[in-house]
User: Fold Probable transporter MCH1 from Thyridium curvatum.
Amino acid sequence: MAAPKASTAADQAPLLHSVDSSASSVLSSAASSYDDDGDSFETRRQRRASASLVRNISFFSALLSALCAGSVTVFSLYGHIFQERLRYSQFQVNGVAIAASISMYLPVSFLGYFCDRAGPAPLSFLAAFLFGGGYGLAAGLYRRAASDMAAGAGRGGAVAGGWSYTAMIVAFVLVGAGTSAMYLSAIATCAKNFGKGKHRGLALAVPIAAFGLSGMWQSQVGSRLLCERLPDGSRGDVDVFRFFLFLAILLFVVGILGTFMLRIVDEQDLIDGAVEELERSGLLDSSILTPGRTERGYGATERSNPFNEAGDPNVMESSEDLENLKKTWVLNAETKRFLTDHTMWLLALGFFFMVGPGEAFLNNLGTVIKTLYPPTVNFQGAPTSAATHVSIVGITSTVARLLTGCLTDLLAPSPQARHMQITSSSPVLSRLRFSVSRVTFLLFFAVLLSAGLAVLASGLVQNHGERFWIVSGLVGAGYGAVFSLTPIIITVIWGVENVGTNWGIVAMFPALGSTIWGLIYSAVYQAVARSPAPADGGGPSSSHDEDEDLFCYGTRCYAPTFWAMTLSVWIACGLILWAWKGKNGWSRRGVVV
Assistant:
């Protein structure tokens, strides 16, 4: 029998190789040794009870944040007041709305990346000051500008074109960024705390629905409680100054509460599961976690060593360093995988073509309603109001979001894990029961959205404001469902541990869509307002102001834009369908969706 050899580094190589090849199991057991070794059953029970309490408190805080964060969706409540009292042109009114929309969507990818790594609490803290500063500034600017106009100082567009308009843009940039931060903190909290198992759809649908509901209740508070009183004692338009001040205080308080109450529970379990899944698929190189390994070179930094200086895998330097290393490792790998998946770009483009028209409709709802009542026609009773239809959009949007969350949980096939789907999760299990894909739901509600836009474009509601509920109801349901289903689909296909980053990347696209359609609507509106009256006896196309043509009446003001929006939604449906059934799409790859 050969004599035993002395132990050398070469002899230990197989051991290190086995550690690398099963990095996830070694790391998971090592991390758990810091938490569970020596714990009694009673201690573990208390820990679970404590985690459940924190999870529930975080849920209610996230729900409160979502219920308040959607204040920007009530822009139509006061957009026409900017036009009437501050003498903003239609382009300028849309400029304020577009500023809010761009700042709401463009930072989402950065904020999502930050949220996935630092947690939702810092985002809520940031939102508190963005909202407080934005609405506080807007309130002061509106009061001063309105006073100047009343005194005649702003005649001729001095207010609308001066420094106060630029400052108003800045105020709504802050509001938009605050909306993004507060909404994302709520979504990430619910997705990660309750996104396990087959109820992930409802876990996301609840805060998303609450966000849609926020516009409804805030519009009612503004139009009924914070409104101006006419000489006869009846309610007039919303008191913009008091409404902005109310929103500044409310959202600041909610943001501060979220700073202390929004927490992710057992996040490391998500990371450990993702490590196992991605290593099993071969997408991650576990050699990055090789004990004692460092790499130096020009422009390089030393890699973090999760083990002690001697390279002993049984003696960790810090469990916190280890978990942070794994978390960064997994999230970066999943982000790369997400960005290199061509179906993600098809989904994002489809989202762009769907949501852009919906955003433009919501931002211009008030001025669209004004075009329904030409001054030469006498109407019986009070005309319909923007507040009424903001509420209708909010209600239908909320119902659609909750409905899609529940129905997709019940009817849509679900993968067995909540991590990124590399290959088919289990197509055989999907066929054992009746199921309806989440993509089918998305396409159905996109058709509803396009139907609402087409009804408006057709002129069916012109001179019949009482029919406008058909438009606001269809658009609200379609828009709300699309906004609910898109992040649900993202979590089902690409997992929940990186949901902030993934959803943030896709959510950037509506900013461009909203901007483009807002500018198109404004251009058509202004062109018709300055054009001669139609020769068909249908009444004037504009109302001539002594300074400039600001107001437009009739179908010519909006029909071309909304026909084009209808076509845009149909293009979006084609892109989504291609991502699902096209070459190397989700269906052909066996991805459960």
User: Anything to note?
Assistant: The chain has one domain: 52-265+341-423+430-589. The beta strands are 227-229, 235-238, 542-544, 549-552. The CA atoms of residues 58 and 262 lie 5 Å apart. The domain at 52-265+341-423+430-589 is CATH 1.20.1250.20 (Growth Hormone; Chain: A;).
